[in-house]
Amino acid sequence: MKHRKINKISICGCGWLGLPLAKHFVSSGVETWGSKQDPEKAKTLAESGIRGVALSLPQSLNEPAILSPQIKQFFNTDLLVINVPPGRNEGAADDLIAKIKQLSETARALGCQKVLFISTTAVYGACEGVVEEVTEPCPNTLSGKAHLEIEQYLLAEWGREVVVLRLAGLIGPNRHPVRFLSGRQGIENGQDRVNLIHLDDCIAAISQLVHQWSPHQVLHLASSQHPTREEYYSKMAQLAGLPLPVFTASLDRNSKVINAEKTCQWLSIELAHDSLLSAPPEL
After folding, report:
1. How far is CA 215 from CA 1, 41, 109, 218, in A?
2. Is the pLDDT of residue 53 over 50?
3. What is the share, in percent, of the chain residues with pLDDT greater than 90?
4. Which of 1, 94, 187, 256 has most Cβ atoms within 10 angstroms of its Cβ?
5. Is residue 171 classed as helix, strand or coil in its secondary structure?
6. What is the pLDDT of residues 233-256, one digit of tens each?
7. Average pLDDT over residues 46-64
8. What residue segments make up the domains of the chain, in order of their start?
9. What band does 1 get if pLDDT is binned at 50, 70 and 90?
10. Whole-number Å distance between alpha carbons of 28 and 133
11. Directed axis angle between helix 199-211 and helix 18-27, to 10°?
């Protein structure tokens, strides 16, 4: 089936991932819209060539007719990238589900053609061993359960016009878990394997997806390197000149390993940051 070319992209959530993603598409000559909750911050997106809109969920999205012309233009797009993390307050998971469902309905009513939902490998939760794209999810956290419910809803609503991209733990500029583990004592599960993906590789995968819409509706991304938590975070602390974390003695159990080989093949990409142990953390 042929899909029309994507000339306009709207990114719901221009944060740590969404903002550099939007800047990438601007640099590629794609008409790019982006949303921020704060109206003043939304205005600053124009400095990067992004057409910013203030969008705070939930709004009266269930009444599209009364939305501002700017919001209507945001949703009338070739591709809507939904990149909205859950909040941390009580009830955040349920709020996220309701917000994304409302967002989806509004997008459909206002002319959106395709949806890319940025999900998380947390949907695999309690899975053990090698996890592939067809592995049955088994979430064991509220966030993981919420993301899986949203995935199932969007897949049912949008059919072949939605792709779910599950991302492993995100690393990149100003974001690395070693900051929270450095110097800590008695950290458990040191023999579990890490599942991480760099910001640059996320952007490359999404960019490729825009150029060639995937017939595979569920994708996931993680580096092919999976050192133990103890090995990885000790090495990162050493490279960053931080106090080493101290892990308790633990057995090597059959921990989760995200295998993204098929996704990389389907998208025809090679991960630029696949060697997790070679580069210091970008703190």
Report:
1. 9, 36, 24, 9
2. yes
3. 85
4. 256
5. strand
6. 999 999 999 999 999 988 888 999
7. 80
8. 8-173+197-224
9. very low
10. 29
11. 50
CA 185 to chain CA mean position, Å = 30
State the Cα–Cα distance between residues 16 and 74, nearest whole angstrom.
20
3-class secondary structure, 216: coil
H or E stretch covering 224? none
How far CA 205 is from CA of 123, 165, 260, in Å, comes to 20, 9, 11
pTM above 0.70, yes or no: yes
Q: Is 6 helix (H, G, I), strand (E, B) or coil?
A: coil
| Mean pLDDT score of the chain | 93
Cis status of the peptide bond prior to 58, with omega within 30 of 0: yes
Give the CB-side neighbour count of residue 167, counting CA atoms within 13 A.
Answer: 20
Report the C-alpha gap between 82 and 84 in whole angstroms.
Answer: 6
205's CB contacts (< 8 A; 6+ apart) are 165, 219, 221, 263, 267, 269
Residue 169 tokens read as 């733990």
Q: Are 113 and 73 in contact (CB under 8 A)?
A: no
Tallying the residues shown for the chain, one arrives at 283
Domain 8-173+197-224, CATH:
3.40.50.720
Nearest to 189 by CA among 134, 136, 230: 230
Where are the strands (E) in the chain, listed by range? 8-12, 31-36, 51-54, 79-82, 114-120, 130-131, 162-167, 169-171, 196-198, 218-221, 257-258
